[in-house]
Amino acid sequence: MAQWEEGDLDPREMMARHARTVLSAVLVAAGLVLLWSAVVFIPAGHEGVLFNKLSGKVSTTTLKQGWQLRVPIINSVIIYDCRRKDYTMSMRTDEGQVQGQSDTNWSPTADGNAVGLDITVWYRIPLDTAGKVYLKLGDQDWCEEHVIRPIIRNAVRLMTAKYTAPELYGPKRTEVQDKIKELIAKSFSDDGFFVLDGDGVFLRDVHLTPSYQHSIEEKVAAQQAIQRKQFEVEQAKQEAMAIKIKNDALSSAKSYLQLRTIEMLEKKDFKVMVVPQSQGLILNLQDTK
After folding, report:
1. Beta strand pairing status for 105-108 and 46-52?
2. Which among 103, 105, 113, 89 is positioned nearest to 167, based on CA atoms?
3. What is the pLDDT, as a whole number, of residue 194?
4. What does the radius of gyration of the chain's CA atoms come to, in whole angstroms?
5. How many distinct helices (H) and strands (E) make up the chain?
């Protein structure tokens, strides 16, 4: 059996000290983890929704930007971006929420054709509304797909059906954009979950079907051919008129020269006889003396 001399440390005491050190470290770490889980950081322009997992209730007060306290484990925080967001539907496959495929809005027109409208909508969640959005709708990604997108598509289809394809492609484009904006703004206002931000709606491009585009090109070509023929006819008329004016001028000048010739001959005692113009001028140059 081992013997310990006076002054030596008892191994049991050493183990107790070590256990207390480990326990202290564990308690400190647990405290830090608990403290860290009790705070949450809300980025600028965002709001946090406090959800109680035990009661299943959503707090009526949203958490503002900065560091905020919560009850660890019991409460969870859902963060919403309340800044301006855009939802884009485009024919290009590299832009908009739907990537890798065309997402333009193909809709029937008043004249039985179809057009594709590329559109961008600016919207945001109003202040202190994130809690209501979470409670009634869901998280932000779900809202974009199941609320924002259907509202945009419905407004586009309703307005497109009231105009012809040439109107949408040409003089009525700005008017259609304003009408779509009014419909989307009303839908947002009725629900109270979102609002348009800034200018709100941008009708970026209008696409025609290949067959309709081809018919337009043929029509334009035919119109250009008619205009070219009309120009050629007008040009021919102008040239004919110019020739007539020139002939009239030459005829007048010829008559004037003939008159002057007769006057000069009379002054020189020449005997002249005026005959019809078709016979020309006959001069009697024989001396009568």
Report:
1. unpaired
2. 113
3. 95
4. 47
5. 7, 10
Q: Residues of 66-75 as b/e, b for ≥16 C-beta within 10 angstroms?
A: eebebeeeeb
pLDDT attached to residue 1: 47
- 15 residue type, one letter: M
User: What pLDDT, on a 0 to 100 scale, did the predictor assign at position 61?
Assistant: 80
221 by Cβ neighbours in 10 Å (0-12 / 13-18 / 19+) ranks as: exposed
CB neighbour list of residue 77: distance below 8 Å, 6 or more residues apart: 40, 42, 48, 49, 50, 51, 63, 68, 70
Q: How far apart are CA 86 and CA 121, in angstroms?
A: 5
In this structure, which amino acid lies at residue 289?
Answer: K
What pTM does this model have? 0.65
C-alpha angle 10-12-13 in degrees, rounded to nearest 5: 65
Residue 289 CA, chain-centre distance (Å), reads 105
Are the CB atoms for 141 and 230 separated by under 8 Å?
A: no
Segments in the chain forming alpha helices (H): 11-37, 130-136, 140-143, 149-160, 165-169, 173-191, 210-267
Q: In whole angstroms, give the CA distance from residue 219 to residue 212.
A: 10
What are the 10-residue block averages of pLDDT along the chain, 289 residues in total?
A: 52 66 65 64 90 84 84 84 94 88 91 92 93 90 93 95 90 93 94 91 90 66 73 81 72 64 62 54 49
